[in-house]
Amino acid sequence: MHRRSPLRVVLAEDGVLFREGLRSLLERFDIVTVAAVSDAETLVEAVAEHGPDLVITDVRMPPGFGNEGLRAAVELRTKHPALPIVVLSHFVETRYVDKLLDSNEGRAVGYLLKERVAEVENFVASLRQVSEGGAVIDPSVIRRLVQRRDPLDQLTRREREVLILMAEGHSNARIARELTVSEAAVGKHTASIMAKLGLAHGDADINRRVKAVLAFLRG
């Protein structure tokens, strides 16, 4: 059986215990931390030096402990549009999220609350999904973003439920289990969502799903 290459990660987190704990956790899943840094400036330098497969960064870091990590993520996506980035935070910071989602049409990006790390297998699956070009947005972030936007009136209640779960990074099979419906029903809802949002059938499925999520979040 072919064994995939380890995922190479640059990790930015100023809290030593959390940073080292996360590094150790990632190693269990064949994810190698090629650099672990504690501030946004060093993060940018580490990415330039190592060319990682994925960046994981905190939002609040030195020197100001504001949103330096998130701003660094936006800067990195400006320099390297296809670079997969997962932002971790104890809270929902929406000021720069739009810019992050706008980069590379929202592909290969994640925003998760740190409490999700405790759900180890789901967390690691989210990292891999982002590294492969997907988008994974924490439910709390989705709720905050939706509050700032007008709903998409053309979607039914069920279609909105499907799209919210899609934004959380779930597959059709998982969405079917969450909503207690058949996977075929989810497929029909997904097709209807894509049609209503005018997403071309020619796009790759993962790109269509990401674009649908972006349309929903932007309103």
UniProtKB/TrEMBL annotation:
<dbReference type="InterPro" id="IPR011006">
    <property type="entry name" value="CheY-like_superfamily"/>
</dbReference>
<keyword id="KW-0805">Transcription regulation</keyword>
<keyword id="KW-0597">Phosphoprotein</keyword>
<feature type="domain" description="HTH luxR-type">
    <location>
        <begin position="148"/>
        <end position="219"/>
    </location>
</feature>
<dbReference type="InterPro" id="IPR058245">
    <property type="entry name" value="NreC/VraR/RcsB-like_REC"/>
</dbReference>
<feature type="domain" description="Response regulatory">
    <location>
        <begin position="8"/>
        <end position="129"/>
    </location>
</feature>
<dbReference type="InterPro" id="IPR001789">
    <property type="entry name" value="Sig_transdc_resp-reg_receiver"/>
</dbReference>
<feature type="modified residue" description="4-aspartylphosphate">
    <location>
        <position position="58"/>
    </location>
</feature>
<keyword id="KW-0238">DNA-binding</keyword>
<dbReference type="InterPro" id="IPR016032">
    <property type="entry name" value="Sig_transdc_resp-reg_C-effctor"/>
</dbReference>
<dbReference type="Pfam" id="PF00196">
    <property type="entry name" value="GerE"/>
</dbReference>
<protein>
    <submittedName>
        <fullName>Response regulator transcription factor</fullName>
    </submittedName>
</protein>
<dbReference type="Pfam" id="PF00072">
    <property type="entry name" value="Response_reg"/>
</dbReference>
<keyword id="KW-0804">Transcription</keyword>
<dbReference type="InterPro" id="IPR000792">
    <property type="entry name" value="Tscrpt_reg_LuxR_C"/>
</dbReference>
<dbReference type="InterPro" id="IPR039420">
    <property type="entry name" value="WalR-like"/>
</dbReference>
